[in-house]
Amino acid sequence: MFTTEESKIHDYDYLTKNPETLELIERYLNLNDATVFQMDTTSPFNISNIKDEAISGLVNFAKINDHRFVNKFFEAVNLKLNQGAIYICCAETKELRKERVLNKYPKIISYPYYLIDFSYKRVIPKVPFFKRLYFSITKGRNRVVSYPETLGRLFSCGFEIIETKRIDYLTWFVVRKVRNPDYNFNPTYGALVALNRVGLHGKMIKVYKMRTMHPYSEYLQEYLYNLHGTVDGDKIINDFRVTTWGRIMRKLWIDELPMLINFFKGELKLVGNRPLSKHKFSTYPKELQEYRIKYKPGLVPPFYSDMPSTPEEFYETERNYLIAYEKSPFSTDVKYFVKAFYNIIFKNARSS
User: Do residues 221 and 280 touch, judged by C-beta distance below 8 A?
Assistant: First the structure.
């Protein structure tokens, strides 16, 4: 069944010319099933106006780049789908757009063109003063979206990732509805972000940092943890959520400067175990979880003092710090701070 108000393609024509796309879709959906819909629309109203009660699958051929309100669209899809139903969509991600532009023109033209394109269609839409003007002119069409942000938005709107696949210069996302949308009005989108972290006595606090990851990256932590695991028990392996500028800020400690707000609010102390997200906290041994929340988290973690290299060593470092701090708070923090300072200055210990 093909339903669209503003069709630019016909299902048979498009899919006949794109056998790899057809093979991907048919791996998950039966296109002859009357409860499976194929669409080419950027309007959430077109999704909401689907009359059928039972929808087992939906394919949208319109690129996410052209959606004016991405989350509203995903939310409308979620509300129309049955629990466990499949949604398949596509985007020209930032990485593939760059590759396409650089391959299309000679270098003397392609690099300046890409810089202008990226600035206009990626940077300006995120600047509050210019944002409204930009969207009034472009209606949100053909803007730059990143792979991590697209994944994060899908997660935030109640989907889990089954498969992603590059076909030509598009990335196709095969996802399944697993819950209702979060309707998050405060995602990690601006330069300064407030992250939910476990604080003293298990109370959730907002920890301020400069954003070093793509927007909506907080929704990908559990996904990447299960997919890649961690190095030294802390950092996720192959964490593609971190931006190029973010890596530079982390090397220079710029991203953590806003945490001084939490320090002066009394939510963090100078030395202490790092404040963790709820998911990361849940992966810790139970006895260490209980021990951790007895004391405030800190700006300078004991990690930089002992420099552990395995998850077991990482947990042991935090445990040893807490045991020592319980016996002698002041001298323990002085000792750990001096050693961490030495490792940072002379051994180039850095956040990654």
Answer: yes
